[in-house]
Design a protein that fits this description.
Layout lengths: L1 E6 L4 H11 L5 E8 L3 H11 L6 E3 L4 H12 L5 E4 L7 H9 L3 E4 L3 H17 L3 E3 L2 H10 L7 E8 L17 H4 L9 H9 L1 H14 L6 E5 L5 E7 L4 E5 L5 H9 L13 H4 L14 H12 L3 H17 L5 H13 L9 H18 L1
Parallel strand pairs: 1-2, 1-4, 2-3, 4-5, 5-6, 7-8
Antiparallel strand pairs: 7-9, 9-10
Helix pairs in contact: 1-10, 3-4, 4-5, 5-9, 5-13, 8-13, 9-12, 12-14, 13-14, 13-15
């Protein structure tokens, strides 16, 4: 049986991971859980899946206290660490899980957005697997299986367009947090849902794809695909395009990461191409309206500290927006102003990344 640690077990990724485990109890043993405050829910999960109470971690203290608990969980004896955490708190547990020789199934964007160079160097050094859980990166991963070593012309990264697809900048001046949290396709946590509304989420995924697949950012093309049926694809040098399709259900990429290299049985809804195949559309993103996508391309082209600063500032500003302390367009403008003015520092260590992240948050919080 494969022993699994789940970081963020009561969140969207964590609960859906346990759905997959529940359907495959003969294949997986959950050995540790963490949560960020919903302790009762985590303890119910522990009881159901037989997780020892000593391996259940409630992370509702200071940032540093939470990171220490997450590192302890991530370095327990296991075969796979599922990182379903939201925010920069996910970087160090990923790093230490890999240091301990554990493969990681990753849904935490900040791990690669802020720490991509450090994490991928460790992956190469240890010969471990970093298995993507995001539906888009899982799709690209699947398209590349059997095509390793073949040159890529483009990565085609699909995007639903979020709740404000088709709107112009002036249409979003009075957008509220409640409106921005209504994603048309996916049920996700609040921070990632706001990122989807600004298209920052897709920008972060561009940066992740650069690190995961060793692809130059200019070869990563974003396509607005509101049906969320084609989850992403790869165009090869002969102009052949391979895409992965499926119903919009995060349990599919989660099950692939858990079962890899095998595929697990899925008793849930299948994709019916006879009813959906004629309705698939793809359009260019509007980067004039949704400036965060272009900002992410800028950040990764700069490299070094620039994505770290962008990620930290975005996390703080999204939280301010959710608390009605800044407007929807205002927080995006502040973010762009800060990142474009940043003087990039190259060749960062893990400690450098953590320090720059912390300094960015403190400065922004102080100014606010």
């Amino acid at each position: 049986m494969k022993k699994i640690v789940i970081l963020g077990s009561t969140g969207s990724i964590g609960t859906q991971t346990l759905d997959v485990v529940r359907q495959n109890l003969d294949l997986f043993e959950v050995v540790a859980l963490t949560c960020a405050g919903r302790e009762d829910a985590m303890l119910r999960q522990a009881d159901e899946f037989g997780v020892p109470l000593k391996n259940c971690y409630t992370c509702n203290g200071s940032y540093d206290e939470n990171v220490l608990k997450l590192i302890e969980a991530a370095t327990l004896d296991c075969d796979l660490v599922v990182n379903g955490l939201m925010g920069m708190v996910g970087l160090e547990p990923t790093y230490h899980a890999l240091k301990s020789g554990h493969d990681v199934a990753l849904a935490n964007k900040e791990t690669l957005v802020a720490g991509g160079s450090v994490i991928m160097e460790l992956i190469r050094e240890k010969g471990l697997k970093l298995l993507p859980i995001d539906s888009e990166h899982s799709a690209i991963f699947q398209c590349l299986e059997g095509n390793k070593g073949r040159k890529i012309k483009k990565i085609l990264l699909t995007c639903s367009g979020g709740p404000f697809r088709g709107l112009k900048r002036q249409d979003m001046a009075e957008v509220t947090a409640k409106e921005a949290l209504k994603h048309p396709k996916w049920n996700m946590g609040p921070k990632i849902t706001i990122d989807s509304a600004t298209l920052m989420n897709k920008g972060l995924e561009v940066i992740e794809a650069k690190w995961l697949f060793g692809t130059e950012p200019e070869k990563i093309k974003v396509l607005i695909h509101p049906q969320s049926i084609v989850h992403s694809g790869v165009e090869f040098m002969d102009n052949s395009i391979l895409c992965q399709m499926g119903v919009p259900d995060m349990r599919i990429p989660i099950s692939l990461a858990l079962g890899y290299p095998d595929r697990l049985d899925n008793p849930d809804d299948e994709l019916d191409l006879f009813t959906t195949g004629s309705d698939l559309t793809f359009t260019e993103p509007d980067t004039e309206t949704f400036k965060c996508l272009g900002l992410a391309y800028h950040a990764i082209s700069e490299g070094g500290s620039c994505p770290v600063v962008m990620n930290a500032a975005n996390e703080v500003l999204v939280d301010m927006f959710l608390k009605d302390r800044v407007g929807f367009l205002e927080f995006q403008d502040k973010l762009c102003e800060l990142v474009y003015a940043h003087d990039t520092i190259a060749d960062l260590s893990l400690e450098d990344i953590i320090m720059i992240d912390r300094e960015t948050r403190e400065k922004l919080t102080y100014k606010a």
